Amino acid sequence: MAGEIVISSTTGIEKLVYAIMTDEVLETYGVVKEAPPVLNIKVAPKVDVGSLYANNRVVETATVIGDIPVDFEAQDMPLEIQADFLGHVLDPLTGILVYNVDDKAPYVAIGYKRTKGNGKSRYVWLFKTKFQEIEEEVKTLEGKVVFQTPKISGLAVANKNGDWKHACDEDTAGTSVAAFLLTVPGTV
Question: N or C terminus of the chain: which is more exposed, having fewer CB within 10 Å?
Answer without folding.
Answer: N
